[in-house]
Structures are given as structure tokens and as C-alpha cells.
């Protein structure tokens, strides 16, 4: 029975701004809990299956951005519904054939416990594989962003780096980031919430198209 | 318990951590000493505590008697 069919219960999904669901998992780096990442940003991502071509390109792409993420205090954690032995064999095959080292752990979620908890399985696509999901969890364990891609389409790790930069800029400077923002671009001031605030905003010397749309440059270190 | 092999010996990372813990360290200090990510230290130290090779007090981790004996065997 497909999800959405009358009588089928649809599992609750994680929500932005709420605590990421806690878990303990067997991984290629041993038993890990979500709480072990406290104090770091975490990118929890799922792939459909080991030893498949698109997933191989993605895991290599994640490995390539791992050093840049580490500089930003971000850890990576992969997941699929495969065994630890399958993950180990895949990681070793990637080292051998693609000359890439996978420096982050991969969860062996054979019982689909975490996949279900995070809503990674899309029954309309596959009941046995996780979709290409990305969950960005902040150092306080709050779920800050989610990305879902279908089985057919590999993710863009450059966008994931950009997303991390944007979230960290928001936290550091209490600003928002416009479409296609990149570090160094101007950011958006939160709109005023009162008539008086709107009038003050226009007098404050910011670059404003209107009272609700003002941009500023961040300090060079930010 | 992945950090302890079936034959009772320790995985390399667990061995490295108990060597560091000849003097008490916090998890963060172990990270700095071994240049490991914090999540890896936390998970391994938790298993060493469960194996009663390491004890925690006020955020500091130190070897138990059994842990010190294990270090002596490795040296």
C-alpha cells in the first residue's frame, strides 16, 4: 500500500527549527550518537544504495568538500539501508577505483530506523531505498535546513557549501541572505516590524530599495 | 562494542586514546592531542567507559586500574 492511500499512516517528518531526532547508529566509524556531534554543525545525508553510480559520484563529491566543511566546523555523516560490511567494501572500492578517501562515517541503517525517523524513504520512488536527503543540524542540535532530491538526480555539493555559509552568516550577523547569495555579497536586514521602525530604517543610511528591502555589507571577516 | 575487538584487544583509535589518558584529559583535549574529530573521541571514549577501561569525573577522563593495566600490556 502506498503512502497516501487511505488507511496508510504517514510518518511524521522532522521540522525546521525543531530539535533533530536523536539516534544511535552503527557506522563505518563505530557506534555513533547524534549527541556526539554537539558543538559542531552536522550534515546528515542519505543515499539510495552502495555500489550505484550516482551515489558513487555523490559520496566522492561530499569527500571533496569535507576539508572545506571541516574549516567551517561542519561534520558529515552518510546513511543508506545497507550493512556496515557493504559500506566498508564500497568505501574501499572508491579508494581503489576513484582515488578518493571517504573521511566521514556512513550509517548502516538496515532496519530503516533512522531513515523512517527522518522521513528519508519516499514510497512513491522506492520502499527499500532512501532518497537523496540532506539535513543540516546546527551545533545546538536544531534542524536548520533540509534538501530532498529524487533517486535520479545527484546533489550539488557547491550548493550545500553555500547553504552552510549562508546559515553561519545568518547566525553570526542576524541577517538574511538573498537568492544566490555568496560570501562577500551584500546581505538583507530583517524588515522592521513597526511604522516607526520603517521610518528609521530609511534614514539609517542603508542601501534600501524600500523600507522593507535594505542590504548591507558584512565585515570582511564574516 | 566496536572499539574492543572480539579477542579483547582494542581498535587502533581506542589504543591511541588510552595511551593519551595516562594523564587525565577532557574530550576536547584528547581531540587536540590526537587531531581527531570530537564526535569520534566522544563515541570511542563512551565505549571505553562502558568497557570499564576509562572513568569520567567532572568532564575529565582517566584510566581505571584495568585501563592502566591495558596500557602497560601495550607498551
What features would you describe in this structure?
The complex is a heterodimer of chains A (222) and B (75). The model of chain A has no long low-confidence stretch (mean pLDDT 93). Chain A has 5 helices and 10 strands, in the order βββαβαβαββαβαββ. The longest helix of chain A is centred in the first third of the chain and has 19 residues, at 53-71. Chain A starts with 23 loop residues before the first strand and ends in a 6-residue tail after the last strand. With 222 residues, chain A is of the alpha+beta class. Chain A is elongated and about 65 Å long. In chain A, strand 9 and strand 10 form a beta hairpin. Chain B has 75 residues and is mainly alpha-helical. Chain B has one domain (12-74): Winged helix-like DNA-binding domain superfamily/Winged helix DNA-binding domain (Arc Repressor Mutant, subunit A), CATH 1.10.10.10. Chain B contains 4 helices and 2 strands. Chain B has helices at 12-20, 27-34, 38-50, 65-74, and strands at residues 54-57, 60-63. A two-stranded antiparallel sheet of chain B has the order 1-2. In chain B, a hairpin with a 2-residue loop joins strand 1 and strand 2 (60-63). Chain B is globular. Classes of the chains: A alpha+beta (222), B mainly alpha (75). Chains A and B meet through strand 2 of A and helix 3 of B.
CATH topology group of chain B: Arc Repressor Mutant, subunit A
The CATH architecture of chain B is Orthogonal Bundle
Overall helicity of chain B: 40-55%
Order of helices and strands of chain A: EEEHEHEHEEHEHEE
